[in-house]
Please model this.
Amino acid sequence: MNRKSNIVRFAAVLALMALAVFAVWRAAESGRAEDSAGKERKLPEVERANPYTVIGGARCQPRPNQESLLVIGTDCHGPLVDIEDKDEEGTIRSDTLLLLVVNKQEDTYAIIPINRNTMVPIRSLEKDGSVLTVTDAQICFAYAGGYTREQSLENAVWTVSEYLYGFPIDNALAFSLDAIGVLNHAVGGVEVKIEDDFSQADPSLRKGETVRLTDEQADAFVHGRMTVADGTNENRMSRQEAFLSAWGEQMRKQYKDSADDAANVLDELGDLMYTDMRKSDLSRFLKAFISNKDLGVYEIEGRAAEDGFFGWATFTPDEKSKEKAAMSVLFEPVPQQ
Model:
């Protein structure tokens, strides 16, 4: 785990948090999120035989007064919809996974980014939601495990929770890739410097130039991977951070005095977003963001490689780094009797 001090990366995460909070607020306003009087949410709890988790040989428990939100950026173009036939329609994976944890008492928050290539056990589900198979694969396939949006959200939450020692995740929020263009348009085009070779992906993005992105360029800048630079996920993650950093700064300047006005920016997202969050859950996330009391970004370090059979890019976390991130943000030692 590395406590990030790089201002660009830090601002990127702030921007992503803003996106999550404002989008959830608008979702609740439009009726997609359940009210507190509605149905109980169905996000699965990770069942444990003991009321504690063992991390690094020590008994630990979740920190008190916390609430968590898993932000999922998918590789889906168009609306996030249920899938009838995966063979014909394909599956939707998560290119971005980010866990936001808010302390409800102190109005502080911290971020744990999850590398999409992290190799973990992935559940594939039947149409009725039962587990069909469990296979070691990239964590981005957890969202692809379901048939409905609800199943996909739940499966991603369950997988990330398992990966993080059973930490209970309260809420989740998924975005379509096409939301990028909407967000770019909302601020009149995000201004970024082109650091990579886009000659194959989008020749209008010339290396070394600073450009105000069109909506189409924004899609190529944020999503392009195989035909950009070295084709790695790590390279794409750095561009996502640059985009979100610039977008967040522009949003803050335009809407620094009114979160409600900022939420109105996302009216056009519609089915480009899906969340399980209820109206009663929103105020704490919004309050924490406005307070600007951040505790930083805690990135899990590890080793990037390639799967010898499938040729997939893989990421193996350093267990000590993961333990440090978990103990810094999610857990605390169980008091000795």
Observations:
- The mean pLDDT is 78.
- The chain has nine helices and 16 strands.
- Residues 60 and 333 are 4 Å apart (CA to CA).
- The longest strand covers residues 94-103.
